[in-house]
Amino acid sequence: MTQTARIEDILSQYAPLLARIAATYEADLGLREDLIQDISLAVWRALETFRGDSSIKTFIARVAHNRSVDHVLRESRRNNNLSDENIDDLQTMSSNATHQDKQLDLMSALRQLTLGHRQIITMQLEGFTQLEIASVLGLSEAAIAKRASRARQQLEQLL
Predict the structure, then answer these.
(1) Residue 16: is it exposed, middle or buried by C-beta count within 10 angstroms (0-12/13-18/19+)?
(2) Looking at the domain assignment, is residue 14 inside a domain?
(3) Which of 45, 58, 99, 126 has CA atoms 20 to 30 A from the CA of 12?
(4) Total structural domains in the chain?
(5) Residue 8 is part of a domain; what is its CATH number?
(6) For the segment 104-120, what is each residue's pLDDT rounded down to a tens digit?
């Protein structure tokens, strides 16, 4: 199997993970699709440097989260309101108590968290352990536990 085919297989396998990560950072569908493409390209480039220090899933999540943070910062400079209008649109759409509506409410609440808290909660929702999250974010497990607790409290208030 060629290197290109291997990378394509990895991107295909982790496409749902990348889409979920992008969705927690970007509400606008068009911008989210651009972000997914940006993340995929970043993963494609970064996979050549993967040394096996962590699992491939952890490595890909690190790249995706870093690219997503860059996206949010870039968009916030371009549009100083951090997509408050998009959050309001999502909240307006969520009038029923269906499963999909609850997911929209969660996504909207996640977008209101600080970037640091958003990263931790998103990764926990993806099934990462605190040790894996610490590895991705370059923090201690204790710091992750503390931030996760604060983030859950904020989410409870928002929901």
Answers:
(1) exposed
(2) yes
(3) 99
(4) 1
(5) 1.10.1740.10
(6) 677 778 888 888 888 88
- Number of Cβ within a 10 Å radius of residue 67: 22
- Would 149 be classed as within a structural domain? no
Residue 52 CA, chain-centre distance (Å), reads 22
Return the structure tokens found at 34.
């651009």
Token couple for 30:
């068009």
DSSP, res 52: S
Locate 157 and state its tokens. Answer: 């208030």
User: Is 112 within a domain?
Assistant: no
Q: Is residue 91 part of a domain?
A: no
CA atoms of 61 and 157, how far apart (whole Å): 27
Residues 118, 124: Cα–Cα separation, whole Å: 10
User: Is 95 a residue whose pLDDT tops 60?
Assistant: no
CA distance 61 to 94: 28
Name the one residue in this structure whose structure tokens are 């009038």: 95
CA–CA separation, 40 and 58 (whole Å) = 15
Least confident of 13-17, 50-54, 84-88: 84-88
Kindly write down the DSSP assignment for every residue of 79-124, as one continuous string: STTTTHHHHHHHHHH--S-SHHHHHHHHHHHHHHS-HHHHHHHHHH
